[in-house]
Amino acid sequence: MDVFDTDGHEQVVFCQDRATGLKAIIGIYSTALGPALGGTRFYPYENEAAALADVLKLSRGMAYKNAMAGLDLGGGKAVIWGDPARVKSEGLLRAYGRFVESLRGRYYTACDVGTYVQDMDVVARETKFVTGRSVEHGGAGDSSVLTAWGVFQGMRAAAEHTWGTPSLRGRTVGVAGLGKVGKYLTGHLVEDGASVIATDPNETALAWARTTHPSVQLVPDTAALITSDIDVYAPCALGGALDDDTVPVLRAKVVTGAANNQLAHTGIGKLLEEHGILYTPDYVVNAGGVIQVADEIEGFNFERAKLRATGIFETTRRILQLAGDEGVPPAVAADRLAERRMAEVGRLRSIYLN
């Protein structure tokens, strides 16, 4: 591929340390709103091209997510190519931290798939441009707490738009994935009076549901979940949950979930509309996690971060209103608002300061 064919990214950095086995790529899509913030994904990609494609897609998504979350932060992401179970080490993480430090604050890293708060504590031994750290080291800890809270707020806004009330009481919600976010989301839904149907391939997660929330109905797989009599579908596991096969059989009227990149391709947004299904853009409603880790940069305060994550309710409301006014899918409306903010605020950087 053309090395400059990077979908408009400002900077793409390839990092290698042979002694530790580090092979990493840092993608900075935009710093129009401020330093780029996005997690580090540690994953055994099939090849270098797959790793590059993922970091470009993810870093672009972070720019839009941070813009819609109202943060003064741009979008970036990093991937470390390798199996974390085999090659992750203190030396590798510290070598990666040195590369992050070399960017002098253009990029802040945090956790993602394959990396955890303990890893960020190690990375932080080599760079100050890291967030998502453990509570013991002054960080926010588990970011899934506010991710789930934000998804719940987005779901409330979708419920208001669809049924006239910002509550899930009396509604049936299908949760696909009972990982950290799915568990917290299930708790919020049960507390709000919703009926929950859930699935997860992990038996430990299912056992948790049986013990903690015995009212939750468990089904064997996602195929059974989406064809169940549900009002809301909440994909909280892998991306691509909505595709040409699933949308026609989906019985829900609303889709609001925590998974990233839920639309298998751009045409799915229109397909959802054709089937009368309201979709709340994933990068808007799942922004509670990035709000939480971003708050660490100025000294973490949980109540302040939770208040900002609660604002996802109003942001989702605004997107759904704009989508209706302009006759476009909510995903398009969200993109337009994000691009508008990046352009308007980014323009201010041209005002020279002595």
Automatic annotation (TrEMBL):
Domain of life where this protein originates: Bacteria
Record bears the keyword Acyltransferase: no
InterPro entries: Aminoacid_DH-like_N_sf, Glu/Leu/Phe/Val/Trp_DH, Glu/Leu/Phe/Val/Trp_DH_C, Glu/Leu/Phe/Val/Trp_DH_dimer, Glu/Leu/Phe/Val_DH_AS, Glu/Phe/Leu/Val/Trp_DH_bac/arc, NAD(P)-bd_dom_sf
Keyword Ribonucleoprotein: no
Annotated NAD(+) binding sites: 177-182
Homology family: Belongs to the Glu/Leu/Phe/Val dehydrogenases family.
Name assigned to this protein: Valine dehydrogenase (NAD+)
Organism whose genome encodes this protein: Actinoplanes lutulentus
